[in-house]
Amino acid sequence: MKCAWCGYLVVGGAQAFAAPALNGQTGYINMPSAAVAADGSFSLGYSYDSPYGALWVTSTFLPFLEVTGRYVSITGIPGFSNDPNAFGGKYGRYKDKVIDTKLQLLEESGWRPAFALGITDVFGTGLFKGQYAVASKTFGVNRNLEASIGYGNQRPDGVFAGVRWQPQSLPNWALVAEYDANDYPKDFRAAATSAGQREKGPSVGVEYRWGWLGVQAARHRDHSSLNAYVSIPFGAREFIPKVYEPPYYQPKHARPRPTLEQWRNDPAHGAAMIDVLGKQDYKNIRVELKGHTLHLALTNSRISNLGRAVGRATRIALAFAPAELRSIHVTYTRLEQPVATYEFFDLDKLADYLDGRIPRQAFLENVLLRYPNPDDMLQADREGVLVGVKDNTGLEVRTVHEGESIQLISEDREANRFKLAPKLGFFFNDPSGALRYEVAAAANYNKRLGNGLYLSGAMGLKLIENVSDVKQPSNSLLPHVRTDVAEYKRGNRLKLHRLLVNQYMMPAERWYARVSGGLYEEMYRGVGAQVLYLPKDSRWAVDLTVDALQQRDFQGWFGKNSYQTMTALGALHYRLPYDMTATARAGRFLAKDEGVRMELKRRFQSGIEVGFWYTRTNGRDITSPGTPSSPYYDKGIFLSIPLRSMLPSDTQAGAGMAISPWTRDVGQMVASPGDLYDMVEDSRRDMNTFDGLGNFAERPDEQNLPAVNPPVQPLRDPWPAMRRRLENSSSALPSAPDLFKGVGLAAGALVVASVSDKKIDRFAKDHAGSNAIKGLDRFGKAMPVVMLGAAGLAAALGGERMQNTGLISLQSGAAAAGLSIAGKHMIGRARPMDEMGHWARAPKRSDSSLPSNHASVAFAAVTPFAKEYDAPWLYSVAAIGSMGRVAARKHWFSDAVVGGLLGYATGSWLWEAQRQGNKSYVSFNGGGGEYGVTWQTTY
User: Fold this and answer.
1) Are 602 and 632 in contact (CB under 8 A)?
2) Domains of the chain, earliest start first
3) Which end of the chain is more exposed for a tag (fewer CB within 10 A), N or C?
4) H-helix or E-strand containing 570?
């Protein structure tokens, strides 16, 4: 049987073996390999390996980064209570959420194996926490044999290995074997489960893969396991051919074009054009003839690509426009706000290109693509051409349309729309039950009231649900901005979820604004405003949103609760390589907590987006797993799916999901009445992708153009240039006499600083618990992470000089951390907080005090910047952070001094070896929708 999808699975080399293990990460049975799945792969599966059952999702977020989320249940341990009538009794087995990551540092090349580092249970309760390093190599003429060896700490524990063989005669089958190094008796409550009887040892298995589907059955020492999954190539442009896509406008018979005078005197000519545009799903159509230029402003409710939508509209305009016309201007709009303007100066060249007679480059010389200005906003029917256009707005039943199984819908030329369709919602992981659901009939109504003025309403009728069974009241100490969600679900079966008015405006070029008022969502009503600025540099945008809100009552109509608040959030959006977008939101959230929310998402060829967010505010959420010493911070992952990639015709409809705790109050935001950045993001991306025309003429020869089918950015092998950097750095190492001098200086500093150790520690002990000490502790704990993060941003986003300095800083931090950790193991000094004495032996060498790793990393990270930019004040920032560790009694004063000297020496050495203009440097290049990495070396 021939598999239509198999080409997505085998991409050459070791990636042909990128099959998921039982935990979802690419590997064998329980052990990982150094391979990662093909860029853009998304896998969903379920595995059972007694006593663990796991529902897992894995995404190759970047070509070298694999992220896995697992929802693990443990047989033999009740979640909360064995009594089904007690609180938590219906939860069933114990369950835990786990996030794992794998970073492939080196791809396989020639003799060199692939090499990767991984961390399990990065966030969460840490039941499955571990770290590992693994190398993998393929063998044979056809590279159908892969072998891996690695070492893990915690889980896996010690040396592990794996092998996979794919017979050439049976390409869909593979045999796997591994040495499982997990120490199962050390797992969470292993004595109460079958994990307590499991041992390290060999396992064997067999795999079968067909297209997107895969299954693995394996045998361990005394039991079997099963893993079944589906892998979807998000990097593919589409999954289903557009066999039902309506063709562009092609008149059956050539019709004579009117003169300018006939067009102006007879609105029927414009009405005929608008009638055809309407049949091609164009809305908010505005037409104006200015001199010898025809101006069109419109949007399309179905076509997803900006260039293709403008192309079809331009083709229709050219067919109906006056014969003496010299140019056509088409402004594409969203909610009547202009987002892109295309000017066509030579209509003969336009016709030639649409008919396939000239190449793209010759056509581009006569096209101007620009940001619109307020003058491009055409008023409704200024020339009276809409009067004679019929607008059929009757209700109709559609099945399997825009991803809905069935819907009752009505939509007119002005985008006034009514839709009634079923809605399904899921809620996971409440103590009273692991899965909650809600099935409802949802009605949506949108009405244009004036220029940019829209009414939006939504109602829901609950049909079947069990969310209201959640009876346990929230014990959150924050204002209950979200944790009372079960109370809202217990309200009326028929609810008014949204009823609001939005006024959209464009006050100036690249400025957009919105004013809103009404019922925002099920839980809040209010008034608010947003303003968005789009600079000419298409990589970034900023917006500010302010909302005065009042909590609605539980019944779902016009009642209110007493809670009121005002939220204010400023946002910076920045486009990164690999079509990633980073967003930082800072300000005041729903529970009156203040802080920052970071979001990162990646968009794949199919238009599917995968991302995550993390919020850090001053709201102290101590609801489990949060504690007073370690409060919970809001975080989650999300998936956005444009349905066009999965339907036989184009559509702008989409679906989405997010996985995060649904009964939290910290870091929460109100549902936006109409986010401006969401309104312009897709159109702006299309506008700035290569020439911005996309699939303009829908010609066969266009399909391989980068503007139509953007190429995947290849992952370049940085090893040769990195090797030169390392060689340069080794050549700049201090000579033996200088090294001895440095060691002597460090020893002398240690002796001098040790004199003050006890006095400084006594002061810290006497003032423990003060706000100043707590603040210093938090500052010191966060400083290395902040500094390395800043270095990473400099390396990714800065200019050439700053990029090189940022990369040196990252190397310095890593090198200093390694030297510091080695020093801890050799010296083994106890920490002050251990209360064992000034030079006592630490209980664990890995947790010893000398030198301070935080001080080493902080000074190593700032030194390249301080030297490159002549900014010695940066050392004071690192010093304050180091003293924070001393104030918290995590280190002696002498530990921080030695750590600082170690970091300074490491940073100075690497800066001298790699600073710009000396040896080698890296540059990150971007523009025109393309990004690249260049390593340069001078001698």
Assistant:
1) no
2) 6-233 (2.40.160.40), 260-376 (no CATH), 396-674 (2.40.160), 719-934 (1.20.144)
3) N
4) strand 560-576
